[in-house]
Design goal:
940 residues, Arc Repressor Mutant, subunit A, Rossmann fold, 5-stranded parallel β-sheet, 3-stranded mixed β-sheet, DNA binding, ATP hydrolysis activity, TPR_rpt, BTAD
């Protein structure tokens, strides 16, 4: 049987036949049971919901009659369906497997957003809009609908909702943004005026500050309203209006669109302009400076995906599976990306891909759009605009000889200032005659090479030296890097001549110019020496990066900008010194896979310094911690420490990266030694870090005094040092201590501050963990809708970052709220998903917790034998770890699994004594299961 509540009540049989539900009260009754689907509703509650303050004389008998009518209607449509409505001691329960609201949420979770939106036929629970019993469920679904409409920028849907709810300010804000992003600024402003007048007329109020700011942002065309991460254009796009419209139409109808055409024809410029016209998330991956092996890492970086371990392609596909995104892959012809694009598109229904290349990818479903040279009028307009002259016949003659290729026109226009239009035309004629007639080379390449050769000939010796040496840079570079590697000050002169492009305070070479210059560098015999200077510069840059302290955020941004140059330096000559200088940056950014690969390549180079080799080995083992089997962690770490000697930072790092999975005794010994050494050496940052780790290790024993002592001292030190990453680490134990003791306001304060700091640093895995932490507090304080929202947000972010630990933590939170609400099947699915992974990595504490939750589920279903077996396994795991709080939790579970009241009381007493022993009695908010178990045994 299919039930629909996303609009007027809809009931259909499995075969699709409509089911008539007679009488308004029977339909209201069915909707009430659907609101509480799967959980019993008492007769008193149903009577109150149906009749309010005016119940019929024989209310119970009348309700039973309505129940009978409902069962009869269902059974008549599909025999046997009367069993969907059952009665028990707690009341009436509707077991409905297929409800459109559930399907809607499943489609949203899987990223099938358009299908989810199509399920809506009107307001949720439209037939009972004025009934209090439906309010919470209705509001929750409507809020999810708003989130969905915001994600897909569905303007018609938002317009309809604004008509139905004209005074809802958040809805109005979404509508205004959607109108603005669709290029309808005037309508967005009118929408604001409509709300302002309606509020004044009906409520005597003004719009809130957020709407006022949005209105002002629209008036000033604030770029922050567009969620598109693309470089800003330096000038207007000329001559591509019709092509842009055609491309926009093709992109609406096709998920893979490829711009094909010769080099320098303007494919990239057109793609960026098209991207800026899109609504929603747009990401650019510049492939020109990359080699084949760099493609997946570049995609991961562009998508803010944590590069942790293993095969990146499946994790990229998983990250994109629930996102609505336009991905621009720029300059693909030198790389084989067809299979990557195919797999991503097949896994991510909300993904569209725009490719620029000199040749098609050759994939099924690929739509090609040729980007031709400019027609003569447009070419002349472009040349005249760039050169600052009129579009004369002489200018048109130059454009004809340059074949209308935008790159050639741009380069030629820079010479007008020195030569004049006539002098340029004369010299251009000479150059084309000189370079014509080549065999085996496409005409378009000869034309482009002629243009670059001509520009090269006009440079002096210093400019030529600088230009060819710039070819060793990958992506963008700084003025400082260009000057030091190029060994002169000619960069700005090259910018003036449009041979180097300025981009947001940095510089880059056009792709064709870069390839040309590399040939010139080889011809000059300078490639080896220049690459050595390039590697030396970036080693010094990495070594001077202050990633521990107040400059952390700015240095992370600076190193992000240089990521392609670091890769280029390591590709040219793997260096232990460079990987050691970059290791902490890689760790903070979550690029553990990139770190391991780079370190392994450097370790494979013989003859390097033994101390550097030892340091690199420590980094390598630490970066591998969460990939290794639990039993392998300690042995690998001890081998690394044998090489490193009594180095406190090595001791600390190999403990910090293993604290949740390694041997707690060994980890505590290492930490104590590190604290001793940091103290004697006066290393305040190291001491703060080690104290935060010791506080985390004491979580296992619920030593609240030690957790608070070390956490507060660590936070004090990190505050003095101005290290935001350190603050995140220090507050972790303080958050856990507050949660254990039931001090939820303190936990929330620390968590909200942590989310803000992590977002500011771009540490998205930390954002996921802390968001899930807020979800835990919402769960403990009974706000289950908020808990689910936060846990789901954290889970999706963890998937995007490909961080299994964060994903597990978030999904376990979803399981907790599901069990608390009686959705036992959902809870069981959330919990069991993670047992194999935790077993693989040696996550015994997590295994103990999940087994206890599964034991409670079995007990709530009445399967006491299975419950007892699960709780006993949890008890064994908890005893292995030595966590007395986990042991107490398992004992409480065993109390629920036994049918003997005396034995249950003995288990509960023992658990209570254990919690008292460690100074962590169970807070009232966590008494749900104990109260439930006591009540069951008392009833006996």
């Amino acid at each position: 049987m299919y039930f629909g509540v996303l609009g007027p009540l809809l009931v259909r049989t499995d075969g699709g036949e409509p089911v008539a539900i007679p009488d308004t009260k029977v339909r209201t009754l069915l909707l009430d049971l659907l609101v509480h689907r799967g959980t019993p509703v008492s007769a008193d509650r149903l009577i109150d919901d149906l009749w309010g303050l005016r119940p019929p004389r024989n209310a119970t008998g009348t309700l039973q009659a309505r129940i009978s009518q409902l069962r009869t209607a269902l059974d008549r449509a599909e025999p046997g369906s009367r069993a969907l409505v059952t009665h028990g001691p707690a009341g009436y329960t509707l077991t409905a497997e297929v409800v459109d609201s559930n399907i809607f949420e499943q489609l949203m979770a899987s990223g099938r957003l358009r299908e989810a939106l199509d399920l809506w036929r009107g307001p949720a629970y439209a037939d009972v809009a004025d009934h209090e019993f439906a309010r919470a469920a209705r509001d929750r679904l409507e809020e999810l609908r708003l989130v969905l409409l915001e994600q897909i920028a569905d303007l018609p849907g938002l317009t309809e909702l604004v008509r139905l709810h004209p005074l809802r300010e958040r809805l109005r804000a979404l509508h205004m943004r959607a109108l603005y992003r669709a290029g309808r600024q005037d309508e967005a402003l009118r929408s604001y005026d409509e709300l302002r007048m309606a509020l004044a007329d009906e409520l005597g109020a003004d719009p809130g500050p957020e709407l006022v700011e949005l209105h002002a942002a629209i008036l000033r065309h604030d770029g922050s309203l567009q969620p598109i991460r693309l470089p800003a254009p330096l000038n207007d796009l000329i001559g591509r209006g019709e092509l842009l419209e055609e491309a926009s139409t093709l992109l609406e109808r096709n998920r893979l669109l490829t711009f094909v055409g010769p080099g320098g024809v303007g494919k990239t410029r057109l793609a960026l302009e098209l991207g800026r016209h899109q609504t929603g998330d747009v990401r650019l991956v510049e492939l020109a400076p990359l080699r084949q092996g760099d493609v997946l890492e570049a995609l991961a970086a562009a998508l803010d995906l944590r590069d942790e371990s293993g095969d990146l392609l499946p994790r990229l596909a998983e990250s994109l599976s629930s996102r609505q995104l336009l991905l621009i892959l720029d300059n693909c012809e030198h790389l084989d990306v067809a299979d990557v694009v195919r797999r991503l598109l097949s896994s991510a229904p909300g993904l569209r891909v725009l490719v620029t290349s000199r040749e098609p990818l050759g994939l099924p479903g690929e739509r090609l759009l040729g980007v031709p040279p400019l027609e003569l009028p447009a070419a002349a307009e472009l040349f005249a605009a760039r050169a600052g002259v009129d579009a004369s016949e002489q200018v048109k003659a130059i454009c004809r000889r340059l074949d209308g290729i935008p790159l050639a026109l741009e380069l030629a226009a820079t010479r007008v200032r020195a030569l004049g239009v006539q002098g340029l035309a004369d010299r251009l004629d000479d150059r084309f005659r000189l370079l014509s007639g080549g065999r085996g080379v496409p005409e378009r390449q000869r034309t482009l090479r002629a243009t670059i050769d001509w520009s090269w000939d006009l440079l002096d010796d210093e400019e030529r030296a600088m230009l060819r040496r710039l070819a060793v840079h990958a992506g963008t570079f700084s003025l400082e890097a260009a000057t030091e590697v190029g060994q002169n000050d000619a960069l700005l002169a090259l910018v003036d001549k449009s041979l180097v492009v300025a981009v947001d305070g940095r510089y880059r070479l056009l792709e064709s110019v870069a390839a040309y210059c590399l040939e010139r560098l080889v011809e000059a015999g300078e490639e080896v020496e220049t690459r050595q200077r390039h590697a030396a510069f970036y080693l010094r840059l990495a070594a001077q990066a202050e990633l521990r302290g107040p400059d952390q955020r700015s240095w992370l941004h600076r190193l992000d900008q240089e990521a392609a140059n670091f890769r280029a330096a390591l590709d040219a000559a793997p260096s232990l010194k460079l990987v050691n200088a970059l290791a902490w940056y890689w760790y903070l950014r979550g690029r553990l896979g990139e770190a391991r690969r780079s370190i392994a390549a450097a370790l494979a180079v013989p003859g390097q310094d033994a101390a550097d080799r030892a340091t690199a080995t420590v980094w390598q083992v630490g970066m591998t911690a969460t990939d290794a089997k639990g039993s392998n962690l300690t042995a690998a770490a001890e081998e690394a420490l044998t090489l490193a000697g009594d180095d406190p930072r090595a001791l600390w790092f190999l403990t910090m990266t293993q604290w949740a999975y390694g041997d707690p005794v060994v980890l505590m010994q290492r930490t104590e030694r590190a604290i001793e050494l940091f103290t004697s050496q006066g290393d305040r940052w190291g001491l703060a870090a080690a104290l935060s780790t010791r506080a985390q290790l004491n979580i296992v024993h619920a030593d609240l005094h030690a957790m608070l002592r070390d956490g507060h001292r660590s936070l004090e030190l990190f505050d003095e040092l101005g290290d935001d990453w350190g603050r995140l680490q220090a507050t972790y134990s303080l958050i856990v201590a507050a949660e254990i003791s039931g001090d939820y306001p303190t936990a929330v304060r620390y968590l909200e501050d942590a989310v803000r700091r992590a977002e500011d640093l771009g540490l998205w895995t930390e954002v996921s963990f802390r968001t899930a932490g807020l979800g835990r507090i919402a769960y403990l304080t009974g706000n289950y809708a908020r808990a689910d929202e936060l846990h789901e947000r954290a889970r999706r972010l963890a998937i995007e970052q490909s961080n299994k630990s964060a994903e597990e933590y978030a999904e376990v939170g979803l399981g907790l709220t599901a069990r608390r609400q009686g959705r036992l099947d959902d809870a069981e699915a959330h919990f069991t998903k993670w047992l194999d992974w935790l077993t693989q990595i040696g996550g015994t504490p997590g295994i103990a917790f999940i087994l206890t939750q599964l034991g409670y589920i079995a007990e709530q279903r009445g399967n006491f034998t299975r419950a007892q077996a699960l709780h006993q396994r949890a008890l064994d795991a908890a005893r292995t770890v030595g966590d007395e709080r986990a042991i107490a939790l398992a004992l409480e579970g065993l109390a629920g699994a036994t049918e003997n009241p005396d034995q249950a009381q003995a288990f509960l007493t023992k658990a209570e004594a254990l919690r008292a022993k460690v100074g962590a009695p169970l807070p009232p908010a966590e008494h749900f299961d104990i109260n439930r178990i006591r009540s069951r045994h008392d009833d006996r």
